[in-house]
Amino acid sequence: MQKNSKLAIVIAGVVAIALVAFFVTRSGSDSATDTSKASGNLEIFTWWASGGEAAGLEGMTTEFTTQNPNLTFVNASVAGAAGVNAKGVLVSRMEAGNPPDTFQAHAGAELSSYVKAGQLEDLTALYKAEGWDKVFPADLIKTLTTDGKIYSVPVNIHRANVLWWNPAAAKKAGITKAPGSLDEMIADMEKFKKVGIDGIALAGMGDWAIAHLFDYVLLASMGADKFNGLWNGGTAWDGPEVSKAIDYLTKILSYGNSSKSLDWPDAGKLVTSGKAGFFIMGDWASSQWQSEGLVLGTDYTWAPGPGTDGIYQWLSDSFTLPVGAPNRAAGLAWLKVCGSLAGQDAFNPKKGSIAVRTDSDPTKYDSYLQAAMKSWKVDRLVGSTVHGVNYGNAGMAAYDAAVGRFYTGGAKDAKGFAKSLVAAYTANQNG
Asked: How far apart are alpha carbons 247 and 398 in whole angstroms?
């Protein structure tokens, strides 16, 4: 009986310890994502400071303050150059141990340096708690996952490979339909030139917009498989496919505006005012123009980038939870809104992007964005190099600079450009 009593005591003790461990673990898990007592300031770091970007942020901020009346929103945005300026400031703050409560970054490889440095919290538990693993596309979650962990919450999907033009300018040049290939686009740019209109609007400020154009040219000239091969080693950066793309870029640049220092909104105005024919830019251009009072389908229109119909070159803005965030609970509260249906549908129609969530309401979006939603579901998906899907920060910086030097140098040194592209790839591999 004594033996049995001792055994019973031991068993009871083990059970008690197990129960305590269970509840401690459960409590810890819950507390890790609990925002019920969040108060004070939320400092959010973005580069959304004007136009449709600011309008989208305001839409989601309104939803955030409605859900979190005890939190005060503090906008620490750094404007300009598609985030280039902001990224420099952010790196300095993170290295100094002065992170914001949350910051914007492109989903994908762009976050790799922060992950390697141990500067971001693992958000996998938050995904499960909020059910995002069931409403975010599985392929996108794979892109967001590093060694089985997720470090950001995507708030949108943008399309990079979009051709924009002014219908009135096209009519003046005798152009009745969108070009279907790079060769057709170049032929149409010649038509624009003959009636005194620049064939294409170019934004040289900060290098990235010209790099964005080249990224599209690479995709259009070699197709999705060989384009993806540039990142997995299947296509050589110093090979014939890239050489052909450089030739196309050289021709396209020759039809652009003379000023080499325009930011992308100013370059876009060349198109909407009828001074330039085409513009290769992401779909955030549409929200910018709508914020200026222009009407989609009347003042400007669009088509998939020539040669890329059926391909969706994507990028995504996402938010993180930095390690050591001053107000961690506030940062978590913001992330919950970012991933929510209400938050995404408040943000994206104004931002000019589509929701990540598969249960988003299409009726809240304009005709272009509804078309983008359909394309996102059926098109071949490839990532944007310039916007952080394929390259980390080191690779992106080198890539942008290489294209920028080629552009500002008059597009004359094709061999030197190719060598710089190889160096950018190497920088990314080593970064």
From this structure: 20
Residue 9 lies in a domain: no
Contact 405, 225 (CB under 8 A): no
Global pTM reads 0.88
Q: Specify if 23 maps to a domain.
A: no
| pLDDT at residue number 81 | 59
What pLDDT score does 31 carry? 63
Asked if residues 110 and 428 have their Cβ atoms less than 8 Å apart, the reply is no
Sole residue written with tokens 């969530």 = 357
Q: At 297, which CATH number?
A: 3.40.190.10
Q: What is the pLDDT of residues 274-283, one digit of tens each?
A: 999 999 999 9
d(CA 167, CA 297): 8
Q: Give the Cα separation of 191 and 201 in Å (integer).
A: 15
- Higher-confidence residue of 302 and 52: namely 302
Mean pLDDT, residues 408-426: 96
Q: Write out pLDDT tens, residues 152-174.
A: 999 999 999 999 999 999 999 99
User: Domain check: are 298 and 406 in the same one?
Assistant: yes
Q: Please give the full DSSP string across 293-332, using - where no structure is assigned.
A: T--BTTTBEEEEPTT-TTEEEEE-EEE--BTT-TTHHHHH
At 96, is the secondary structure helix, strand, or coil? coil
pLDDT at 13: 44
**Structural domain tally of the chain?**
2
Task: Give the residue from 361, 379, 362 showing the smallest Cα distance to 370.
Answer: 362
- How many Å apart are CA 248 and CA 431, to the nearest integer? 30
Based on the fold, state whether residues 245 and 302 are members of the same structural domain: yes
Give the Cα separation of 305 and 178 in Å (integer).
9
| 246/329 same-domain check | no
Same domain, 198 and 215: yes
Same domain, 393 and 340: no
Buried b (16+ CB within 10 A) or exposed e, 296-331: beebbbbbbbbbbeebbbbbbbbbbbbbebebbbbb
Could you read off the pLDDT of 43-96 as tens digits, one per residue? 999 988 888 888 899 999 999 999 999 999 999 988 865 677 888 899 999 999
Domain that holds residue 169: 159-314+386-430
